[in-house]
Amino acid sequence: MGTVALHLSGAVKRFGDRVVLDGLSLDVAANVRLGGRYRANRDRFNDLRAGELLELFGLADLAGSLPA
């Protein structure tokens, strides 16, 4: 499971006694931009078009929302 997915699910990822996800707070648009930076996507993703992608999938109104 990826770091963002762990955070969204409420899980905590630890390395030894250290909590890795403490204080991580990404809104929907930031999560889309983060996903675009992964190796599989980075050659064909443009951060500036993240808003277009959110609109395409009907999620533009959630762009600034934080995970519940």
Short description:
The chain is mainly alpha-helical and 68 residues long. Helices cover 35% and strands 6% of the residues. The longest helix is centred in the middle third of the chain and has 10 residues, at 28-37.
Number of strands: 2
Q: Specify the structural class.
A: mainly alpha
Radius of gyration: 13 Å
Portion of residues in beta strands equals 5-15%
Distance between the terminal alpha carbons, to the nearest Å?
19 Å
Amount of helix: 25-40%
- Describe the sheet with the most strands: 2 strands, antiparallel
Mean pLDDT: 77
Q: Please tell me what the overall shape is.
A: flat
SSE arrangement, N to C: HEEHH
What's the total helix number? 3
Q: How do the strands of the widest beta sheet line up side by side?
A: 1-2
User: What are the low-pLDDT stretches, counting only 5+ consecutive residues below 50?
Assistant: none
Secondary-structure blueprint of this entry?
Elements: H1 3-9, E1 14-15, E2 18-19, H2 28-37, H3 50-56
Antiparallel strand pairs: 1-2
Which descriptors would you attach to this protein?
3 helices; two-stranded antiparallel sheet; 35% helix; mainly alpha; 68 residues
Q: Can you characterise this structure?
A:
The protein is built from three helices and two strands; from the N terminus they run αββαα. It is mainly alpha-helical. The chain has a domain at 25-68. It has a two-stranded antiparallel sheet.
